[in-house]
Amino acid sequence: MDLAFIRRESALAGEGLSCKGEGAGGGVSGADSPRRNQRLDLAGRINSTGSERKPGSEMPTESWPDYEGRVGHSKAVLHSLQLRNVGPAPAMDLELAPRLNLITGDNGLGKSFLLDVAWWALTRKWPQDLNENLTSGYAARPINVREKATIEFSVDTKTRRANYESSYAPSDQSWLGKAGRPMNSGLVIYALADGEFAVWDSARNYWKKKGNRDVQERLPAFVFSSKDVWDGLSVAVAGKMVKVCNGLIADWASWIRENNERSELMARVLAVLSDTDSEDSTDILRPGTGFARLSVSDARDIPTVRMGYGQDVPILYASRGVRRMTALAYMLAWAISEHRVASRLIGEEASSRIVMLFDEAEAHLHPRWQRVVVPSILHVAKAISDAPSVSIQLIAATHSPLVFASLEPLFDAGKDAWFDIDLDPSTVRLRRRDYLCDIKQHLCGISERGMAHLDH
Fold first, then answer.
1. Which domain holds residue 349?
2. CA distance 42 to 77
């Protein structure tokens, strides 16, 4: 990619930036243009075969999910995190917003760490503890093991706001707290940076308390290595290995053959996530018209995707960016559809609460996809839920100026928050910044450092 293109994309990201106080900013990016709204309507009409759906079954096409005026929509699921003597700084505090929370900062300052802690606060399990094949998601450790280390957080339950404190026990090498299942309700979906995923489902992952002990009756969570996402996840249940997820290749092929609701759901999610707001619709990823075999020794039917140049390409041969978007689409479709099934089986209503954690949203994505990926995630999560009112809280970490700037015309200080981690001068500091007033300064700093490095 040449320097002229990078400069042009950075300039587009920074156009129209001004300090206007609360509410939407002045620029209009690809994330919320009139053409994009029309394209979202087209994406909503795509069915499982890649053609358009029948009239009357379209997805909602709002330019940005707006939760005001609807019961429960003003509430965040995870309200706050307070860390002491754990992580890269002696103290870190976040008061989270109900809709979007963006975390920025240089490498190594704790963005991924904060997402891991948020996952733990909502599920009380560290991802790596549940799947040793993960390359990240390890349990947090104190800075100084001789001093008290605590993680405090507050969450919304079905009926109230609950506060929780956990302290680290060096002798047990674990975080201790009140026994009992996680207090939040709904779904938690964590997209880790290396193509790994973790899912917690209030209808499938829970346990009971007997005295002061947790008695695990069901799986604590579904944690996928990047290979598990594609080939399936097997875990030990009652001493036997059980396949709890078939994986993207097998599930998607089965859904397409059956031409069922999940097949259409997958196609719609993929279409919305991949819409880059170009002049035509050929950039939208669609399922191909058939399957592919990779070799005479491989009996699997591999789903295909229709590329912009007209060919159906086996998904395993697609680019890293296409595979990342497809994996994200699959995990969203799988988690929500399985939650619906589990809720029916236990005689409960499907939850309207979704928390999404997204690390390095820009990873492997072309700049045009980087400019729409975060708004698209919120569109998708709202569109694929059966609940009449949906509460979606997204916590995303990025160091891409394109992801960051794409939110400028949409950012609402009453619903969204920006947290920036800096080294000042040798101490890591986390602070909540005024997005609409500080964005231009932040982007200029990124551009100057990046262009100096590229010119060098």
1. 3-455
2. 32
